Amino acid sequence: MRILVFFDLPTETANDRRNYRKFRKDLLKNGFFMMQESVYCRMVLNKTSEKTVVDNIFRMRPPQGLVQVLTVTEKQFANMRYITGEKQCDVIDTDERVVIL
């Protein structure tokens, strides 16, 4: 399964920008990668780990702005269509537990 996080956070004041940077860094620390501006993605193996990750996002949410979470299956994610641009392959994109580089 994939967890997609969409967010739109204010950046008008210094405190808003600090909250934005902190939220983004927390997402990266928790294994998310940026798909595009303000859209981050992470792979999870089951519903239990999905719940844990969503709970972590809830705890690190900024005080203002919009944060949305969507969970999709691997099949749904693989069926994503690229209208403009191309898929970037710089991220390991497998659900195998052992990856040999």
TrEMBL record:
InterPro entries: CRISPR_associated_Cas2, Virulence_VapD/CRISPR_Cas2. SUPFAM superfamilies: TTP0101/SSO1404-like. Homodimer, forms a heterotetramer with a Cas1 homodimer. Keywords: Antiviral defense, Endonuclease, Hydrolase, Magnesium, Metal-binding, Nuclease. Belongs to the CRISPR-associated endoribonuclease Cas2 protein family. The lineage of its organism: Bacteria, Bacillati, Bacillota, Negativicutes, Selenomonadales. The keyword Metal-binding applies. This is CRISPR-associated endoribonuclease Cas2. Its EC number is 3.1.-.-. One of its GO terms (molecular function) is metal ion binding. Mg(2+) binds at D8. It comes from Selenomonas ruminantium. Its cofactor is Mg(2+). GO terms for biological process: defense response to virus; maintenance of CRISPR repeat elements. CRISPR (clustered regularly interspaced short palindromic repeat), is an adaptive immune system that provides protection against mobile genetic elements (viruses, transposable elements and conjugative plasmids). CRISPR clusters contain sequences complementary to antecedent mobile elements and target invading nucleic acids. CRISPR clusters are transcribed and processed into CRISPR RNA (crRNA). Functions as a ssRNA-specific endoribonuclease. Involved in the integration of spacer DNA into the CRISPR cassette. The keyword Protease does not apply. Pfam families: CRISPR_Cas2 (PF09827).
